[in-house]
Structures are given as C-alpha cells and as structure tokens.
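Worked example 2:
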Amino acid sequence: MKRKKGVAKSMKPENSATSVRATITFPPELYETLGELARQKKVSLAWVVRDATEKYVEDRLPARTQHK
C-alpha cells in the first residue's frame, strides 16, 4: 500500500515493530519475472520475494527456528 502525500510516517502497519524495510535492486528481467509470478499467484511482489528468501534461508540453515 502506497503512503499518500501528507500522511504521517507514524501510521505504520501493525507488524512494523517486527519488520524491517529493505531496498533491493533487481536486473530488469528478474524483476519482470517476479512480477509475473506475483500476478499469477495474486499476491504482492514483496510476498514473492519474502517467500523465496525464507525458502533460501531454510535450505541453507535447516536448524533455524521458524518465526512464522
């Protein structure tokens, strides 16, 4: 959800205390592919990236405790 001009920054989602925002740069082709996957699944691109990142970490750190 985009923040409207003039809306106070203090209006954060409920989970903002446990979330961290990051800016990531993708090659254009990968970005388009991620967007297409998101459209197909009817989810946000951010959801696709979080899902892929969680699976990547799980594959490399299997003993990691899940925080879902």
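The mean pLDDT is 82. The chain is about 45% helix and 0% strand.
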